[in-house]
Amino acid sequence: MIDFVLAVIAAGVNSAGGGASVTPQTATAPAAVVAPAETPAPTALATDLTVTPSNPTISIGENVAIGGGVAVGGSSLLEGTDEAARPAAPAVAGAPAAPTAQFNMAVVPAGLVAEDQTPTGKFTTAAEVRPILNATKGNWVAVREYDGKDLLYVTHLWGWRCGLAAMAISVNDEPMQNWPLPACHMKYSTPNAMLEEDGLPYLSLQLGAVQSIEIQIVYDDLSMDRARFERGNVLIP
């Protein structure tokens, strides 16, 4: 019986060996996933970026700084330059002093007293007439050749005389002399009007004699002014 079992087993083994061979299958590993190339880190600049709160300057490298001036090669083109390296500012010449008028006090009448400067509306104070005389200084005097003579007029000054205390005149650099002013006619609406009794507002001199004139006035607040005129600038027809 045992022999029969062994024979059956042997026959089964022989029949299996004559059949189709089974090739064992080998599992293929999936293709490896290639990781994307890693982006190289940016190459560090050979710089030194520095910001300090007290001096907000960014230094780029050794030779350039932004903020507080651009320093190139150790010297600055803007603010922050070494005081020793900064060129000295050119000296600025001072403005020339305004010339001071020289007044001849010898011809100012003694005892003048400053008048009240409350405006009257009739041009009888320095405060009222000074702006007019300042603006019309070129008209203070005039020269006219008439009837074989030079007539030197001061009509314009007489026309505003109520704001004046005194007037003096010099012709051709001769010594200055006081020229008394007519009184103001306060009872009229135009106190500066020239009446017949006031006399004539001109001097009569030899024809062609007047070459230059200087006038000095004292306002009734005791301030003063002075002007010089050449014949050609004040000659009228």
Structural overview:
Residues 13-36, 42-81 and 90-99 have low confidence and may be disordered. The protein folds into 2 domains: 44-81, no CATH class; 105-236, no CATH class. It is built from 4 helices and 12 strands; from the N terminus they run αββββαββαβββββαβ. Strand 1 and strand 2 (64-66) form a beta hairpin. Helix content is 14%, strand content 22%. The strands form 4 sheets. Strands 9-6-5-12 form a 4-stranded mixed sheet. A 4-stranded antiparallel sheet has the order 8-7-10-11. The protein has a two-stranded antiparallel ribbon with strand order 1-2. The protein is of the alpha+beta class.
Write the layout of secondary structure elements.
Elements: H1 2-17, E1 58-60, E2 64-66, E3 71-72, E4 75-76, H2 126-135, E5 142-146, E6 149-153, H3 155-158, E7 164-171, E8 177-178, E9 202-206, E10 212-219, E11 224-230, H4 231-234, E12 235-236
Parallel strand pairs: 5-12
Antiparallel strand pairs: 1-2, 3-4, 5-6, 6-9, 7-8, 7-10, 10-11
Short description:
The chain has helices spanning 2-17, 126-135, 155-158, 231-234, and strands at 58-60, 64-66, 71-72, 75-76, 142-146, 149-153, 164-171, 177-178, 202-206, 212-219, 224-230, 235-236.
Based on CA atoms alone, the radius of gyration comes out at: 57 Å
| Distance linking N and C termini | 178 Å
**Mind summarizing the main beta sheet?**
4 strands, mixed
Strand content: 15-25%
Pairing-aware structural class of the strands and helices? alpha+beta
Number of strands: 12
Mean pLDDT: 75
Query: Any low-confidence stretches, pLDDT <50, length ≥5?
Result: 13-36, 42-81, 90-99
Spatial order of strands in the largest sheet: 9-6-5-12
Tally of helical segments? 4
Order of helices and strands: HEEEEHEEHEEEEEHE
Total number of distinct structural domains: 2
Coarse shape:
globular
Helical coverage, percent range:
10-25%
